[in-house]
Write a structure and sequence with these properties.
Blueprint (H helix, E strand, L loop, with lengths): L1 H11 L5 H5 L5 H12 L4 H13 L4 H14 L3 H6 L1 H8 L13 H19 L2 H14 L4 H17 L9 E4 L6 E2 H5 L4 E7 L4 H19 L2 E7 L4 H11 L9 E4 L6 H4 L7 E6 L4 E5 L4 H10 L14
Parallel strand pairs: 3-4, 4-5
Antiparallel strand pairs: 1-2, 1-5, 3-6, 6-7
Length: about 325
Amino acid sequence: MFRSSLLLAALLCLPLAPAQAQEPPASNERETALDGLLSERESPQAFEAVINVARKNGISEQAILEAKFLFHVDRDEDEAIAALLPAFLKQNENFKLEDSAIFSIKEDWLAVVEYVHAIDDLQKGDRAGFKTHITEAFWLSPRQASAFAPHIERLRLTDSMRLVKIDFTTKLIPLSSNEPMALEALFTGKKAMLLHFWSPASRESEESLPDFIATATALQEKGVAIVSLLTDGSPENLTKARELLQPLGLKPPGAWLIESKEAPLSRELRLQTYPLFVLVSNSGSVLFNGDPSDDSFWEALQKIDPQIVRPAAPTDAR
């Protein structure tokens, strides 16, 4: 989601093509059709409906292709983005700036073509091709760099995680006592371990706690060990953490531990934002490292146990 919001922000902040401003004003119906085309995100069926309306109102196929790209970007559908590559390559031969719905210069269009090509290479496992095309996308449109970067960061993270092995003999101090606890003691009879890195100083950590509790409770029932790690064990942070957890009752799901200052797991696992989920196999290998909302987390869990399904968010359960 992080990547898609960045790309959308970069694209939608681009000024409209000057050529469009020189044309006669479009009809209200055409403007409405174009607005719907660029904003519809509810479902593929709803999006197909606004495409039909757009075509009836004379919106170009090039603009429709651009809208399809935005639709799939916003929904984090990399496979669908990659599937657009043949259409982008074909349209590239007949690109008209005056037909564009979002681009003011051709280089921005070309950068997106390169980006789609890079995603296609990523889907195929072609790392060399990905590097070539994502680099060209940077070169063509530097202002979209913040949108392209997350894919590179994800690739580097994946590479580094292949070299990580979690040491389950590591002993950590619980929030509720001074008795060190080894991770291996929590892993007995479990299929995997979820490490949840959090901080009471992070608003995202605090706001996501209800979702985390629902997830942790469901995963414990499926044989996944749950470990929440507080990365800053300063007295002030400990007090805040305990106050934050107090409404959860005496036994919130899983073990709530304080990270070691000497050998912090967060450093080994390249923690950059809170909260962070890291799914670990019983051999210590990292199966997932990323945002709790990432669908890849649940895909990794289903490889361990196909019966594991994502629980409904507490705010959605009505």
